[in-house]
Structure formats: structure tokens, C-alpha cells
Write a structure and sequence with these properties.
The protein is α/β, with parallel strands linked by helices and 292 residues long. The chain contains eleven helices and 13 strands. The site of uridine 5'-triphosphate (UTP) has 21 residues, from β1 and α5.
């Protein structure tokens, strides 16, 4: 029997060195896109596909993330007594998630972070969403996580999200060897981490959204440590070679907010979509573009 996916893991314990100095004291998941920390967007993405139980893997000293998802009585009382109901509702929205936190004491890689969540996930299938990638679902399109869960429910196999990249860009990603089509997804035959263009297996890159079967936790435990880290890709490659891994393309707009340019792009595009400042931002960008 194929078990339903009810739990999610968000590894968000990386050092965020590309964003120094801000990440010295502010955890990367608390960096804001418009007015919301990136980690809240990911929690909202999960709730939108019916996953309520969320485990966030954080680095030591990231208590502020817990504070963000917790109560704020004085602030709430003040907003209510000042008649600021809309702002009160915005604040209350941060408390609707069933989040648990687990600390990754040493940043020993993505696989290390996932293993920290084992006591919550146990042997169940789980959604895995990387903390520094945001997804935006345009109206009328299917959310990426929904697609992954559907493919998993039909096949019982682990599924990851994939997108096509062209030219030298493939060497920034995990690259997929692709086999036959199955249930709207593709079989993954092999994974190569950041290959050169000449060595690439295809144009398909893996991105930070997955549904993984319970078996993966066991595989992660057996992985070798390389340069102080254990890598998820090693386990995925093993799954692929056993014929147990699929890749599904998606319709969401993806933002790599762990990268400075991706972060700015996300801020600009979310500002353009905002009811509050969208029109103003558009006018400003048009004006600015004429001067560039
Ligand atoms: P990155 O490779 O982007 O690393 O991690 P990073 O430390 O966050 O950022 P830079 O490169 O130093 O700027 C990819 C994802 O895996 C998580 C990160 O939080 C990010 O969401 N991660 C990485 C962990 O949770 N633990 C780790 O040990 C490594």
C-alpha cells in the first residue's frame, strides 16, 4: 500500500555564506522577500497542498525562527486595541503552522540536515523542500508539490522536481540521466553533481522540491562523508540506479533566494504582484529602465 504524505522537512541550517555579513547574526531563512521571511513562504506552500506537519532543520542560534512562528501577545493586544485588524490577521497567519524545530549542530551537508529530522519522519514518506528556493504558482497552474505528490501516489516511487537548463548553467546543478516516461514524470537513471557542459547527461537539472520514500532515511545513514559533508545526491543516485526515482517538470516560477541575484529577482517580482505597491513598483521600474 502507498502511504499518504503528511510530513515535510525543510533543511534551513546552511551557513548562508553567500549572504555575509547579514547572515552572521540573522539566519538565512529569516531574510525577507517583500514583507515575509522566506521560510514562511515555504510553510505556506506546504499548507496549500495539504501538508500541515512541518519539521524545520535550523542552525544553532536560530531561535528567532521559532519566535516568528510563535505567539506575540503584547503585539496582538496592541494591534487590536488600536483597531488594526488587518495587521492583527497578518500576524496571526504566522501561527497557523504545525512546525517543529530540530537543530543541526554541525553543518555537515544537506543529507546531514535531513537525518536530523528522522525522529519525526520515522519510516514514512516525506516532502523535502530546500529552504532557499521559493515557488510561485501562477493562476490556473498546478503547484509543483501537488504534482510531485500525485506522481508519488500513483507510483510509490521517490520523485523530484526538474527543470531544463541550457549551456554552461548545467554545471551549477545536479544533472539527471533520463529514461522513459511514467505517469507524467520521467525515470531518472543516474545523477551527476555539477557536471561540465561536455559531461552533462541531459538538460535536466534537479531543483529543491522532492517527495522521498521512507527507505531514503536508511540510505542517508550509510553515506560516506566527503569534505565534512554527506550529500543527498549520493543517495538519489543510488535510488536512480535501482530504478526507484522519478523526475517531474513543474509550472511554478522558481526563485533561488540563496543567491544574491535570485533574491533580488524574487523581491522585484513579488513587489510587482503586490496589491499595496505593485503599481508604484511597475512605474518605478519603467522609469528606471529608460535611464539604464
Ligand atoms: P547551500 O548549498 O545553499 O548552502 O544549501 P548554504 O550554507 O545555505 O549557503 P551558502 O552556499 O554558504 O551561501 C542548500 C540548502 O540546504 C540547507 C541550506 O539551509 C539550504 O536550504 N543546508 C545545507 C542545511 O540545512 N544544512 C547543511 O549542512 C547544508
Amino acid at each position: 500500500m502507498i502511504e499518504r504524505v503528511t510530513k515535510a522537512v525543510i533543511p534551513a541550517a546552511g551557513l548562508g555564506t553567500r549572504f555575509l555579513p547579514i547572515t552572521k547574526a540573522v539566519p538565512k531563512p529569516m531574510l525577507s522577500v517583500l514583507d515575509k521571511p522566506t521560510i514562511q513562504y515555504i510553510a505556506e506552500e506546504l499548507v496549500s497542498v495539504g501538508i500541515k506537519d512541518i519539521v524545520i532543520v535550523v542552525s544553532p542560534g536560530s531561535e528567532v525562527i521559532g519566535k516568528h512562528f510563535g505567539p506575540a501577545e503584547e503585539l496582538e493586544e496592541r494591534l487590536l486595541s488600536d483597531g488594526k485588524k488587518k495587521l492583527y490577521d497578518i500576524e496571526r497567519q504566522t501561527q497557523r503552522f504545525n512546525v517543529k524545530f530540530v537543530v543541526q549542530k554541525v553543518a555537515n551537508g544537506l543529507a546531514g540536515a535531513i537525518l536530523c529530522a528522522e525522529k519525526y519522519v520515522k519510516k514514512e514518506p516525506f516532502a523535502l523542500l530546500l529552504g532557499d528556493e521559493l515557488m510561485y504558482t501562477p493562476k490556473g497552474k498546478e503547484p509543483c508539490m501537488k504534482r510531485l505528490m500525485d506522481v508519488y501516489l500513483k507510483t510509490g516511487k521517490s520523485v523530484l522536481a526538474t527543470m531544463e537548463v541550457f549551456g554552461d548553467d548545467i554545471s551549477k546543478y545536479g544533472n539527471l540521466g533520463i529514461g522513459k516516461d511514467i505517469e507524467g514524470a520521467m525515470e531518472v537513471t543516474e545523477i551527476k553533481e555539477k557536471p561540465s557542459v561536455n559531461e552533462a547527461l541531459s538538460n535536466y537539472a534537479l531543483v529543491g522540491r522532492y517527495v522521498l520514500t521512507g527507505e531514503v532515511m536508511g540510505m542517508l545513514k550509510k553515506l560516506p562523508t566527503r569534505r565534512h559533508e554527506i550529500e543527498l545526491t549520493d543517495a538519489l543516485d543510488e535510488l536512480a540506479k535501482k530504478g526507484k526515482l522519478l523526475a517531474a517538470p513543474f509550472e511554478d516560477v522558481r526563485y533561488d533566494v540563496g543567491d544574491k541575484f535570485g533574491y533580488i529577482r524574487a523581491n522585484v517580482e513579488f513587489a510587482l504582484r503586490s496589491k499595496e505597491i505593485g503599481r508604484q513598483t511597475k512605474e518605478y521600474i519603467k522609469e528606471l529602465a529608460q535611464k539604464l
